[in-house]
Design the sequence.
């Protein structure tokens, strides 16, 4: 079988070393990881090529016209960041609100909550 | 029907407007930009020259020397800072020594008081940071520094206070002779009938003259670039330091500003477009090199901004001031390049004389008030005055621009005064908010907020300097798409 | 005239951390003065994550990091005077501040901590030619417009400088629907943290053009585009490489400058390299009883280090209040080859506030592997191997009292190690 090999490069951000890691993928499977100096690098690279995850931080509107900074309580798939931000653009929160309070649930169908990152009286 | 229409809200137009506001006349000033002092008057060397430089017998020489001593009174009436710090033309070669002699002679012919040539020792004692290779200098004690836009704004405010109507965003698009003794001046929104038109349109004076069918001449824009330095180094020189002049300009100088900074520049290059105020890398290099000849140790890491201005250079090599022989009631005040600022008060006097000769009768107003109401400047007050002011109005206790210590009260004043500020730059020119070392980084969001509140318009409509220069492009997403209110649980 | 024990000028992360630590150390009367209407400083607009990994061992956003400290400060009885700007500071620790409620507030303090932070370098400071239209913002100003005010500074954006705020704003503006055309950096390496390069630029395919700069700004009323060009090794633009990039906005992320106007007013000695005060082992400036920490002292890349430094300044104040401002001799601490600066610039080993002394430094250029040497008049007293040093990432090391005992001077040197590690790039 002549499966095409895909080569991906990932800059590791686990530590300040910033290793440039090469990942070879064949038929959707990782066949080789090189350039990393530690196992954490390999894990990071694996996630990055399979399903990269990011914490989304943005703002939503408060009923008083001001902005409330928010974040997803956990990382969500990078591919869904724009969907999430679009969904959140319609959210208007009524104060008071406490830091850490959930202001939106299951953003972009990820099952992840969006929480306030500051309090507002 | 009005008596006089002045075209152009630069220092010359506003000086004439104020002069006319003494009399029982209906005067209108038209300015194409959103604020007065938006052209040559906002970016120049800010110097009231002594008057030794222009060729004897020219209008430049006569009006400069006549204008210079008038500044003390005008500035005190208008509450505008003016400092008669004196100027020095520095000679670096034997040949330049001879130029100093020539300038001294010329100055004497022009009637400049107090001129003298000082030797190297005297010079270095007065100005320790000047090039040690300097040989001598021409000292002119009557030269002074002023803020040209502050003066222009003050003149406009005072003129307005005394009944002159100042119309901003009013570009003149046509001038017609309606019948003998009546002219029609057209802007995109209205036509004003008047007996006299004064063309003080600066760089565009040639186009206005042509539009009216009056004498034809050409105004060439000649660019001068500048670098402005942090206040910490404001006392690098105590006086205005000139090199010996060339044929086309007074050269690249090192000069303190009335606000405590200092600048270097300008160079002098003819350009083709009348709005080409772009700063060029070559220009910056040129002025640094030029200024270093006078003051070798410049704190180049403490430049806070660069800018360029355009001189309105006429093809006659002198100011063009006079009633048109072709169009009755049309008076040209064109080609007002350096020493135009210094000459401005005398130009206004001269224009008044011309108007009289042309048949305008000048009856003094009983209630003319030459004094502009005081402008509060928190940064210049002592603590007692500050305490008193804040007690009257807490807005003077809220500092908005931290670099220049400008308070909310001062910004509100700038907006509410006659010929009030409508844009960020207009606030900056009136209060210095955003003029300091951070260049508005911290205060511009606050100033936009205050402008928007005071003017009752959206922050999206606030401009830097008039239509087309809106600062913000839109709202963030949450204000564009709206859904229902989510109750925070 | 009020008499106060400790006045902290600035209620950002440095000021709040110092206040909290000062109260913990038993200083009764702690007043924080801040010019904004809420404490927290610039963290309020830094809604992204990346704060607190060292201090809280978790990744917080700026507002969360600030709120934690605000709560602590409130719980510990720190007084915070808001909407108040300090306009005068003297060398005998007198303060004049102004606000709309009380007018002028005059305070005599026993000790003062300077925590005013920094400002952004502007277009003028880097002398970019061209017109001066609307649409040129420093990255931090743009951040305030977007995250606090809810306004977009532009739609098509070029960012000059790869400082962290610029990178963060590249992502933020992209998520808000703007098009970030590129980030241009005059240096041959980026000035931001690696993770910001990855998560703010690479994630969104925003090109980072190293060894490039903006050579012209076009547009008379509003920015219409910029010309960028590659630079040579002397950082002079190579005009043959010039290209026009249409955009309506130019963001500047070209460095931060400590705000030391008040320090200068008080006659405090300023270090030309750091732009902040010269300090000793307890972060006391050249004026006795006035201390400094955070970005007013030197520009930090991580807020966690600001907090650590602020805590050290608070300990310094405690020791100053305890010893009644006793005079100490200092030995000089200097930066040698490979380093731009080392803080503190002078120390007294006997008067150290703890068993270990923290030294903060920045390298002059990136090195994959480098050895840090600490020299005294007797020669090298300590050496450490460091990997992946970058000018954008501060180096911090601790030296023990024993190591430092009796030395007459300290000099720090950073040398690239010859045996470079395998780097597949």
Sequence:
């Amino acid at each position: 079988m002549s499966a095409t090999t895909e080569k991906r490069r990932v800059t590791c951000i686990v530590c300040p070393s910033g290793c440039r890691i090469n990942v070879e993928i064949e038929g959707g499977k990782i066949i080789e990881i090189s350039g990393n100096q530690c196992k954490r690098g390999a894990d990071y690279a694996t996630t990055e090529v399979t399903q990269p995850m990011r914490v989304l931080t943005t703002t939503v509107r408060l009923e008083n016209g001001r902005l409330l900074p928010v974040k997803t309580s956990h990382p969500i798939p990078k591919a869904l960041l724009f969907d999430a931000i679009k969904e959140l653009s319609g959210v208007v929160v009524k104060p008071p609100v406490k830091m850490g309070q959930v202001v939106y649930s299951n953003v972009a169908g990820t099952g992840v909550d969006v929480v306030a990152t500051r309090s507002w009286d | 029907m009005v008596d006089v229409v002045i075209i152009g809200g630069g220092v010359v137009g506003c000086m004439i407007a104020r002069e006319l506001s003494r009399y029982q006349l209906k005067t209108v000033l038209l300015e194409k930009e959103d604020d007065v002092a938006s052209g040559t008057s906002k970016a120049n060397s800010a110097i009231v020259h002594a008057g030794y430089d222009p060729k004897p017998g020219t209008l430049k020489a006569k009006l400069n020397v006549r204008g210079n001593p008038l500044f003390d009174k005008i500035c005190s009436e208008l509450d505008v800072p003016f400092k008669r710090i004196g100027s020095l033309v520095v000679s670096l070669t034997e040949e330049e020594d001879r130029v100093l002699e020539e300038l001294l002679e010329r100055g004497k012919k022009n009637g400049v008081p107090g001129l003298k040539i000082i030797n190297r020792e005297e010079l270095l004692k007065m100005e320790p940071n000047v090039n040690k290779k300097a040989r001598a200098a021409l000292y002119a004690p009557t030269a002074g520094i002023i803020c040209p836009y502050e003066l222009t704004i003050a003149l406009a405010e005072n003129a307005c206070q005394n009944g002159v109507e100042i119309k901003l965003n009013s570009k003149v698009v046509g001038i017609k002779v309606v019948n003998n003794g009546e002219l029609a001046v057209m802007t995109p929104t209205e036509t004003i009938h008047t007996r006299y038109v004064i063309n003080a349109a600066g760089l565009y004076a040639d186009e206005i003259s042509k539009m009216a069918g009056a004498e034809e001449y050409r105004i060439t824009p000649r660019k001068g670039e500048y670098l402005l330095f942090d206040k910490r180094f404001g006392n690098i020189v105590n006086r205005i330091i000139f090199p010996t002049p060339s044929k086309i300009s007074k050269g690249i100088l090192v000069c303190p500003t009335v606000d405590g900074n200092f600048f270097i520049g300008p160079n002098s290059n003819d350009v083709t477009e009348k709005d080409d105020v772009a700063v060029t890398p070559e220009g910056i290099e040129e002025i640094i090199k030029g200024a270093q000849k006078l003051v070798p140790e410049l704190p180049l890491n403490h430049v806070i901004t660069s800018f360029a201005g355009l001189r309105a250079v006429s093809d006659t090599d002198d100011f063009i001031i006079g009633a048109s022989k072709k169009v009755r009631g049309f008076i040209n005040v064109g080609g007002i390049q350096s020493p135009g600022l210094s000459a401005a008060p005398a130009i206004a006097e001269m224009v008044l004389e011309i108007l009289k000769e042309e048949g305008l009768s000048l009856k003094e107003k009983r209630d003319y008030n030459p004094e502009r109401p005081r402008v509060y400047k928190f940064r210049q007050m002592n603590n007692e005055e500050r305490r008193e002011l804040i007690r009257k109005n807490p807005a003077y206790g809220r500092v908005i621009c931290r670099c220049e210590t400008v308070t909310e009260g001062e910004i509100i004043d700038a907006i509410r005064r006659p010929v009030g500020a409508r844009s960020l730059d207009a606030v900056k020119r009136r209060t210095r908010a955003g003029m300091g070392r951070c260049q508005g980084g911290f205060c511009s969001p606050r100033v936009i907020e205050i402008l928007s509140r005071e003017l009752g318009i959206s922050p999206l409509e606030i401009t830097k300097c008039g239509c087309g220069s809106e600062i913000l492009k839109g709202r963030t997403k949450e204000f564009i798409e709206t859904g229902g209110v989510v109750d925070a649980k | 005239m009020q008499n106060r024990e400790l006045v902290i000028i600035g209620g950002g992360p440095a000021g709040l951390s110092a206040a909290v630590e000062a109260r913990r150390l038993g200083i009764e009367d702690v007043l924080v003065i801040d010019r904004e209407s809420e404490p927290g400083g610039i963290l309020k607009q830094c809604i992204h994550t990346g704060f607190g990994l060292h201090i809280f061992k978790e990744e917080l956003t700026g507002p969360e990091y600030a709120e934690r400290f605000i709560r602590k400060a409130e719980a510990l009885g720190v007084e915070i005077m808001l909407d108040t700007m300090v306009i005068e500071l003297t060398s005998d620790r007198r303060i004049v501040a102004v606000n709309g409620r009380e007018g002028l507030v005059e305070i005599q303090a026993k000790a003062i901590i300077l925590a005013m932070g920094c400002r952004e370098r502007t277009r003028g400071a880097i002398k970019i030619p061209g017109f001066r239209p609307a649409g040129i913002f420093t990255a931090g100003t743009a951040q305030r417009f977007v995250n606090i005010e809810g306004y977009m500074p532009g739609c098509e954006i070029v960012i000059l400088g790869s400082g962290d705020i610029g990178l963060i704003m590249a992502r933020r503006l992209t998520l808000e629907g703007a098009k970030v055309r590129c980030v241009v950096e005059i240096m041959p390496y980026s000035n931001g943290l690696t993770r910001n390069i990855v998560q703010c630029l690479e994630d969104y395919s925003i090109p980072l053009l190293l060894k490039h700069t903006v050579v012209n700004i076009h547009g008379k009323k509003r920015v219409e585009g910029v010309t960028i060009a590659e630079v040579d090794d002397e950082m002079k633009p190579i005009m043959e490489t010039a290209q026009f990039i249409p955009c309506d906005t130019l963001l500047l992320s070209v460095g931060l400058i400590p705000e030391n106007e008040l320090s200068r007013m008080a006659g405090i000695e300023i270090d030309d390299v750091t732009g902040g005060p010269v300090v000793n082992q307890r972060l006391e400036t050249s004026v006795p009883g006035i201390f400094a920490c955070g970005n007013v002292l030197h520009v930090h890349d991580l807020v966690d280090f600001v907090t650590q430094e602020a805590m050290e300044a608070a300990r310094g104040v405690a020791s100053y209040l305890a010893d009644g401002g006793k005079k100490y001799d200092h030995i000089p601490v200097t930066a040698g080859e490979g380093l731009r600066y080392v803080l503190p610039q002078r120390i007294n080993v006997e008067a150290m506030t703890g068993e270990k002394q923290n030294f903060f430094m920045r390298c002059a250029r990136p090195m994959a592997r480098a050895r840090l040497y600490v020299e005294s008049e007797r020669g090298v007293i300590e050496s450490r191997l460091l990997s992946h040093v970058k000018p954008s990432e501060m180096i911090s090391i601790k030296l023990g009292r024993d190591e430092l005992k009796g030395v007459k001077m300290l000099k720090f040197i950073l040398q690239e190690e010859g045996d470079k590690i395998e780097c597949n790039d």
User: Anything to note?
Assistant: Chain A has two domains: 5-50, 57-116. Helices of chain A lie at 39-50, 81-88. Residues 57-116 of chain A form a domain with the CPE0013-like fold fold (CATH 3.10.530.10). Strands of chain A lie at 5-11, 20-26, 29-34, 53-54, 57-62, 67-72, 76-77, 92-94, 102-104, 114-116.
